[in-house]
Amino acid sequence: MEQSKDNKIIPMTSVDSGKLREVTPDVAYYTNQIVNLIMIGNPGGDWVLVDAGMPKSGKEIIKVAQQRFGENNSPKAIILTHGHFDHVGSIVDLIEKWNVPVYAHSLESTFLTGMESYPQPDTSVEGGVLAKISSVYPHEPINISEVLQQLPDNGEVPYLIDWEWIHVPGHSPGQVALYRERDGVLISADALITVKQDSLYKVLIQKEEICGPPVYLTTNWSQARESVEKLAALNPQILVPGHGTAMSGPELKSGIEHLLANWEEEAVPSHGRWVWTKDL
């Protein structure tokens, strides 16, 4: 197994980095610099980790997990929402520590088995400083073929009987969200986030607003909109995004409605390598 050949520390953080916050007794999210990892399971009991954080953060993530679940309590599995660098940055360290299976959508498999690189981030896209410097972000594939398994076709999530996975492409071909109907908890990955991820200032202070996916790595904007529409139809009660703070209540519902009503103005950049417009 190996991390990507361009895996490196990204000197970028936010005021929420290092915080572990519960949204329900058995769902907590940990902010690792600028990205969230989700831990599903009651403290001290069986649990599953969703995503694997930023590069070179393995020891940090393991320490937080041990504090919540116990020193000798490995997760049953790791679920990857997709394979971008900030969601798999420490996956090899975690696998070497815990020796557990990793599940992802089949359309992400080439990026997770060393076969294919993601497209390089689009520095030409309309956006803030973090879009302009995105060429420094790792984009080459990792190889975890020894432990990688495909998510079941029926939408079930291994070891999480109350949850379902939902295909939400656009930001990446095989991106998935996780949803629990009984309490409306939605783990939205990067399909729907709560911070404008290309803005250095907004990422630093974690300014809360419902946003579409990060512009510099989103390659299909028509699919991205369809994915948000799919998630909106679930009427989520609690949103745990890949980036930004968790949201709930009327602000969540109105924020999603506003985003969809103003999609081309607020989500889709005016220019860039993968810009989609209604004229295409």
Low-confidence stretches: none
Proportion in β-strands: 15-25%
Q: SSE order, as H and E? A: EEEEHEHHEHHEEEEEHHEEHH
Distance between the termini: 41 Å
Based on CA atoms alone, the radius of gyration comes out at 17 Å
Sheet with the most strands?
7 strands, mixed
State the gist of this model.
The chain has 9 helices and 13 strands.
Can you put this structure into words, describing what you see?
This protein is about 25% helix and about 20% strand. The protein has a seven-stranded mixed sheet with strand order 1-2-3-4-5-6-7, covered by helices on one side. It contains nine helices and 13 strands. The chain has about 280 residues and is an alpha/beta fold. The chain has a single domain (about 20-265), classed as Ribonuclease Z/Hydroxyacylglutathione hydrolase-like (Metallo-beta-lactamase, Chain A), CATH 3.60.15.10.
What characteristics describe this protein?
280 residues, alpha/beta, Metallo-beta-lactamase, Chain A, 6-stranded mixed beta sheet
List the helices and strands and how they pair.
Elements: E1 20-24, E2 27-32, E3 35-40, E4 48-50, H1 58-69, E5 78-79, H2 85-88, H3 91-98, E6 102-104, H4 109-112, H5 129-132, E7 148-150, E8 156-157, E9 160-167, E10 176-180, E11 185-189, H6 200-205, H7 221-232, E12 238-241, E13 247-248, H8 250-261, H9 263-266
Parallel strand pairs: 4-5, 5-6, 6-7, 11-12
Antiparallel strand pairs: 1-2, 2-3, 3-4, 8-9, 9-10, 10-11, 12-13
Helix pairs in contact: 1-3, 7-8
